[in-house]
Specification:
Chain lengths: ~110, ~110
């Protein structure tokens, strides 16, 4: 079974703190994604990566950065956490095989910024 | 990217087929239709996808109309564990060979005992 794991299920941080969310996949997938999910807004793509050290902005990259030093690991960084970044963060991964693939999601990290 | 329209909620009796509709009237010729579901407090789970032909796997069947403007996800024998929010997604191209899944609000399916 494909497994995508995220470092924490629940996280509470203070405003201004630097926050690291880590995602690891064990299926040798080329693509990895970070989304956030908020009530009434659905899932929104923050960043994605199609290869090691490669990254592309999604729809809402402001306030976030990412790092992909190894193929299996994709980190989301909140440089200075703010209360409007309180959300559920979901990581996903997929093969790079053109049109016909599926994304596999991790369990999510519920981040609260106080 | 093509948009999708789904009913906000549906009920289905346990053991009966659940038919979840989706409209995607602006879909383009090379865009796939994907279905995911999200059980409470979990990450989304892939169900099935298709381009033109009907598809079936161990979880569900996907029926796509000939004009591709709508589709229906069928869970043949719904169980209580199928209670979830179901998302119909038409995938858009991000570039660099990557594709974005744009999740709308989905349909909350409640399976009733």
């Amino acid at each position: 079974d494909v497994k995508v794991t995220q470092s924490s299920r629940y996280l509470v941080k203070r405003t201004g703190e630097k926050v690291f969310l880590e995602c690891v996949q064990d299926m040798d997938h080329e693509n990895m994604f970070w989304y956030r999910q908020d009530p009434g807004l659905g899932l929104r793509l923050i960043y994605f990566s199609y290869d090691v050290k490669m990254k592309e902005k999604g729809d809402i990259p402001e306030g976030y950065s990412v790092s992909r030093e190894k193929k299996e690991r994709f980190s989301l960084i909140l440089e200075s956490a703010s209360t409007n970044q309180t959300s559920m963060y979901l990581c996903a991964s997929s093969f790079f095989v053109g049109q016909g693939y599926e994304q596999y999601f991790g369990p999510g990290t519920r981040l609260t910024v106080t | 990217d093509a948009k999708t329209t789904q009913p906000p909620s549906m009920d289905c009796a346990e053991g009966r087929a659940a038919n979840l509709p989706c409209n995607h009237s602006t879909i383009s010729g090379n865009e796939y239709v994907y279905w995911y579901r999200q059980i409470h407090s979990q990450g989304p789970q892939y169900i099935i996808h298709g381009l033109k032909n009907n598809e079936t796997n161990e979880m569900a069947s996907l029926i796509i109309t000939e004009d591709r403007k709508s589709s229906t996800l069928i869970l043949p024998h719904a169980t209580l564990r199928d209670t979830a929010v179901y998302y119909c997604i038409v995938r858009g191209f991000l570039g660099a060979g990557s594709y974005q899944l744009t999740f709308g609000k989905g349909t909350k399916l409640s399976v009733i005992p």
